[in-house]
Amino acid sequence: MTAATGHHFARPGNRFWPVLHLSGFTPRLLKPSEQEELLTYGLGITNVVARATARADELSAEEYREGGRLLEEKVARLKPEWLAVVGVTAYRSAFGEPRAKIGPQERTIGGARVWALPNPSGLNAHWTAQTMAEEFARLREAAAG
User: What angle do CA 35, 23, 82 make, to 5 degrees?
Assistant: First the structure.
């Protein structure tokens, strides 16, 4: 759906946009087509791997590693204070951190502090919208402080 629309987390039922709002990152619920509005809140959005797939497990380890390398270059160029990676499995694969857990990470990437967030896909059913919003809010509070 993201590839078809050109908008991140565009599949109906994906919890990213509601969780972003519930966590306090946005003052209202944004639609995927409004993703550019994130910039007005000091937020950006990109992919670790640019190839569209129905499921994250369809990506190869090499694609993740190369995506991580390219993302590190992008972060070094744009210089955000924080990099949030949505999906701890994506983070582990892209940055060679097999034991990483959800939350703040010890390392920096491209000079940015790093936080691994839960994947909002409906396939990640053991995280509810509320528990994801709580984790997103922890990042928001850390970034504000």
Answer: 70
Sheet order of strands, 112-117 included: 82-86, 112-117, 103-109
- Integer CA distances (angstroms), 103 to 40, 60, 112, 117, in order: 25, 24, 14, 6
| Residue 78 CA neighbour count, 13 Å, CB half | 18
Rg of the Cα trace of the chain? Answer: 14
Tens digits of residue pLDDT in 123-135: 777 899 999 999 9
What pTM was estimated for this model as a whole?
0.90
Cβ atoms of 30 and 17 within 8 Å: the answer is: yes
